[in-house]
Amino acid sequence: MLLLLLLPLLLGAAARPCLHGQAQESVRLLRAPVPGRPRDTRSASLTPPGPRDPHPLRIHACYLGDLASDRAGGPQARGPARALAAVREAAQRLQGVLAVSPGQGPLLLSRDPAQYCRAVWGDPETPNFHRCSLLNPTYKGESCLGAKIPDAHLRGFALWPEEGPPQLAQSDGPGVPDTDFLLYVRVAYTLKCHQEPSVIAYAACCQLDSDDRPLAGTIVFCAPHLTSARLSHRDIVMATLHELLHALGFSGRLFRKWRDCPSGPSAREGCSTRRQVTRRDERGQLLLSTPAASRTLARHLGVRELPLGVPLEEEGPLSSHWEARLLQGSIMTATFDGAQRTRLDPITLAAFQDSGWYQVNHSAAEELLWGQGTGLEFGLVATCGTGPSDYFCTGSGLGCHYLHLDKGRCSSDPLLEGCRMYKPLANGGECWKTENGFPAGAQNPHGEIHHWQSRCFLANVTSQRLPEDEAGGPKEALPIGRCYLHQCKEHGAYEVQVAGAPWTPCLPGQVIQIPGYDGLLVCPRGRLCRSNAGTKAVTAAPAHLPPQDRLWELSGLAGPPGLSPGKEERREPSTTVRQAVASTGGAGRLLATLDHDHNPAMTHRALSTGLCLTLLVLAGALGTMAYWERGAPRVGPSPPNHSPELPDTKIQVEDEGRGDAAQSRMG
Fold first, then answer.
1. Please, which of 51, 159, 634, 659 could form a disulfide with 580 given CB 3.0 to 4.6 Å?
2. Residue-level pLDDT at 29
3. Residue 377: which of 394, 365, 389, 393 has the closest Cα?
4. pLDDT tens for residues 388-423?
5. Are the beta carbons of 607 and 459 closer than 8 angstroms?
6. Cβ contacts of residue 138 below 8 Å, gap of 6+?
7. Beta strand extents in 351-393 (DSSP E only)
């Protein structure tokens, strides 16, 4: 059983352990008979040996409930509708990602002899040795994670006398045509949902074909979460996609069944069970050690030498998730941080290639930004807190989540094992939500703009008169995460706009001043305006999409040139953020005192043109160096694709940082 956990919305709550291994072990995996092996009854679904061209994976979803009564059930009817819509969208997405070798005829699932048979012939001299000699009178059919499998989807079974032909007890069902994987869908308030109120959904793989490829599974959606408005459609889709990938083979219990097929999944001959799929390295870290996943991780980290494997989360002897410190944001990590922060990444797709069951469309992968190009030492507990980093942080200050959609607080959780990152703030930390600003007319001394094209920047800009320090100079506040508009230019460059100020060039890695404001703004080195590989950067959204849906479509992401915020977008951050700023102690001087303004007319000194240019170049180097030497956190890239909605399903995972949003767990 594969769990997607939504932790309780309680400050300081600890992350709960993942129940995947324990739950999946409760499911008895059935394997289809090998083609050509004698069987109890006829079957219309045997696949003859020999290569066949793979085709897109066909997932047939069966909802086990009464849709008519569900529709008449008032508010509760929303649950099945949301679940089925998410399943359809997730299945359609996977159809463009995975391909399989087709079977022959309709898909039929196996019955479990341990369920329908009470006794077998035990005499090796008996012609029907090991065949069923006595049926179980209480047998009521097959189920998969509580889902009753229709007899129409199952092979038949028979009673065998000591000698002679069988007496048919149940003939084969007609099967399910044009199907490679059967997915049973339940929406219920099960005992598991009751005992674990944080569980959104859980899933299991239930049956395998003769080559051990998953043939069927079940997803159970806990009804209370589907009837709540706290989860967006995109979140449910991504949760469903995560669970589907578990059921299709990304599972600690299924890793041992992965196949090595040198000629590809269409060739049955020449394939063998992989000798080693997981191993532990010299540090004791559990790794998925298959070749394609390892090569893809090496490319992601920007190294030539081949890592020995991709780290897996420590969940006991069987792990089914990537290590969160290394692959934050991947669809197959154990934490769910919202759909817009989750990627169907190339390392996960490479792992499916290594399974030997699928032909993979690698062009469908979404760029994973966390740790990109950082080398083999990235994500280690021993290195995550040493030196400046674009991804990890130290202390408990306020900054920006590495994708720059949200303000964040530097904090940790059990999966990060002491490493710290800027986690999105709850209650108003999303820069891309216009409603997170203060009402029109409210004071906005930091010039923040909340807009679907706004991003989080580390800054201490202010229009207020600064108090003086002991030396008589301005006493600047420490830089924290602030929301400002951005727009992409050519070659990855971008501009930033603070309320009431003109668009100002923001070169990645530079520290700039904003006309009309005191203080500085840090231009993230990263990928605010970088699109997915092979696509052009998008600078404007399709006109027919509503503002929040544009976030899901864009991959760079900036608005059309000349966009200026209206009054309703010039708002102060929420009370939660302002209280978090106050809790840092407020005072502190930014050691970047040289003029970084890109507009010479705004400089505070009357310099000649040559001297001004010289100081600007010197300031860009010395000011930035001084800034980083103070230990100020560095900020990372923004995502290539964004989701339009973020549910209010966050929690606090530790006492510090009461404005943080905690991550949900994925099974």
1. 659
2. 87
3. 389
4. 888 999 999 999 999 999 999 999 999 999 999 999
5. no
6. none
7. 359-360
Question: Quick one: which of 212, 215, 234, 231 has its CA closest to 223?
Answer: 231
CB of 389 closer than 8 Å to CB of 634: yes
Give the integer Cα–Cα distance in Å for 658 and 582.
Answer: 13
Scan for tokens 């924290």, then name that residue: 480
Tell me how far apart the terminal alpha carbons of the chain are, to the nearest angstrom: 8
d(CA 524, CA 539) in angstroms, rounded, equals 18
The whole-number average pLDDT for the span 502-519 is: 94
The pTM assigned to this predicted structure is 0.78
- What does each C-alpha distance from 430 to 286, 319, 407, 548 come to in angstroms? 35, 32, 6, 12
CB 492 within 8 A of CB 524: no
Q: Where are the beta strands (DSSP E) in 463-551?
A: 480-488, 494-497, 504-506, 511-512, 521-522
Closest CA to 481 of 421, 413, 397: 397
Distance of alpha carbon 638 from alpha carbon 481, whole angstroms: 14
**Nearest alpha carbon to residue 643 among 335, 402, 342, 333:** 342
% of the chain exceeding 90 in pLDDT: 51
Rounded CA separation 473/275 (Å): 68
Reference 508, options 528, 478, 490; nearest CA is: 528
Compute the distance between CA of residue 649 and CA of residue 225 in angstroms, rounded to an integer: 10
Active site (annotated) includes residue 495: no
β-pairing verdict for 199-208 and 30-31: parallel
Helices within 285-362 (DSSP H only):
291-301, 346-354
pLDDT at 614 over 90: no
- Residue 561's CB is within 10 A of a number of other CB atoms, namely 12
The tally of CA atoms less than 13 A away on the side-chain side of residue 205 is 27
The two structure tokens encoding residue 305: 């030498």
Question: CB 287: neighbour CB atoms within 10 A?
Answer: 23
Q: In terms of DSSP bridges, do strands 181-188 and 167-170 run parallel, antiparallel, or are they unpaired?
A: unpaired
- Pick left, alpha or beta for residue 198 (phi over 0 → left; psi -120 to 50 → alpha; otherwise beta): alpha
Measured distance CA(641)–CA(538) in Å, rounded: 10
* H or E segment to which residue 183 belongs: strand 181-188
Q: Per-residue b/e over 150-181, b at no fewer than 16 CB within 10 Å?
A: ebebbbbbbbbeeeeebeebbebbebbeebbb
- Asked if 20 and 315 touch (Cβ cutoff 8 Å), the reply is yes
Question: Using CA atoms, how far apart are residues 217 and 552, in angstroms rounded to an integer?
Answer: 29
Tokens standing for residue 322: 């990537």
Query: Which tokens belong to 504?
Result: 């100002």
Q: How many residues does the chain have?
A: 667
Tokens of 430: 């999303």
Q: Which residue has the tokens 């890695």?
A: 509
- As given in the structure block, the two tokens for residue 117 are 């048979």
> And the tokens for 516?
């009309």
CA angle centred on 438, ends 435 and 439, rounded to 5°: 90
